[in-house]
Amino acid sequence: MARNAEKMDRLEARIPSKLKRMFLRASKIEGQTLTNFVLKSVTEAARKVIREHEILDLSQRDQEAFAEAIMNPPKPTPALKAAARQYKRRGSGR
User: Fold this and answer.
1) Torsion angle of C-alpha atoms 23, 27, 29, 32, degrees rounded to 10
2) Cα 15 from Cα 41, distance rounded (Å)
3) Does 83 reside within a domain?
4) Residue 76 covered by a domain
5) In sequence order, which residues have a C-beta less than 8 Å from that of residue 23 and are 6 or more positions away?
6) Residue 79 sits in which domain range?
7) How far apart are CA 37 and CA 29, in angstroms?
8) With 66 labelled, which of 25, 33, 55, 86 sits at a CA distance of 20 to 30 A?
9) Cβ within 8 Å of residue 66, ≥6 positions away
10) φ, ψ for residue 79 (rounded to 5)?
11) How many domains does the chain have?
12) Tens-digit pLDDT string for the chain (94 aa)
């Protein structure tokens, strides 16, 4: 085994026989092993879920409110000023 090979873990799942037969049929249609088919399918699904949760989707009104807040931020409140002073006294935590 190559020294630079990625560490492999085992993933097991109990699934209904009917579902396994469907996966096997699909993997044969794609010309892949069942393992490769499942890995490819799960990887694509995982990437899609992550991508959808990383993208911020704002309505037109929300976009305008965000832009307004960036371009014309409100003045700091006394509580925010106190928090900033306390943060500076403690350091940035690095």
Assistant:
1) 180
2) 16
3) yes
4) yes
5) 15, 34, 37, 38
6) 17-87
7) 10
8) 86
9) 58
10) -65, -40
11) 1
12) 455 688 999 999 999 999 999 999 999 999 999 999 999 999 999 999 999 888 888 899 999 999 999 999 999 999 999 999 999 998 765 5
